[in-house]
Amino acid sequence: MLKVEKLKVGGLPPLSFEVARGECLAVEGPSGSGKTRLLRAIADLDEAPGYVSLDGAERRELPGPAWRKLVRYLSAEPGWWAAMAGDHFARGNEEANARLLRLMTSLGLEPALLDRPVSELSTGQRTRLALIRGLMDEPRVILLDEPTGALDREAAALVAELIRFQLLAERIVVLVSHNPAEIERLAHQRLLLGATGARDAMEAAGRELQR
To answer: Is residue 78 predicted with pLDDT exceeding 80?
Structure first.
């Protein structure tokens, strides 16, 4: 269980909600409403008063890297620190290699992409590779910030199917998306953030946290 209690993010009133294993919470709202800031706060990437716990362990009880190994934030604009795509993945271990191949196949990517420079890959290829990179060590909570925003319909459908698989594997997903159809297919709950008003944010934290 991911539990958020009185988490204060930006100008929003304190937010409280819970997401069970195997469930997806969709975070909705216009640009500037605090969606990305909320994900970053849950991942303990940005300072935010309040409490976030996973299966009873509070984020401040663990070092940041240890928390983020369990609670993984995947940015809408992923970073790359090496020239070659394959250098972003730990290869050589048979189990890890098999997992990488399965994930690439599930997202319609050829293994040969790993031997190409990141600069030569399309935006869609980089987006899918970044998702795979974030899932390789099987985090228990996956915080997805617009995972299909840069993808065509076919690739977006493959990503949605992979998210469903993560839910079947009892992982927790918090999804930021502007795609109503995607939210309808994946979300068990919906958290609505208002652009400016405390009233809207309070509704998001209470009455409009829907199942």
So the answer is: yes
In a domain, 211, yes or no: no
User: How far is Cα 129 from Cα 133, in angstroms, rounded to an integer?
Assistant: 6
Overall number of domains in the chain: 1
Half-sphere exposure of 4 (CA within 13 A, CB side): 26
pLDDT in tens, 158-202: 999 999 999 999 999 999 998 999 999 999 999 999 854 333 443
Distances from the Cα of 67 to the Cαs of 95, 152, 181, in angstroms? 23, 33, 31
In single-letter form, the type of residue at position 35 comes to K
Angle, helix 94-106 to helix 153-168, in steps of 10 degrees: 130
Side chain identity, residue 123: T
> For residue 142, is it left (φ>0), alpha (ψ between -120 and 50) or beta?
beta
What's 184's domain CATH number? 3.40.50.300
C-beta of residue 113 within 8 angstroms of C-beta of residue 120: no
Residue 210, in any domain of the structure:
no
CA nearest 74: which of 191, 211, 173?
173
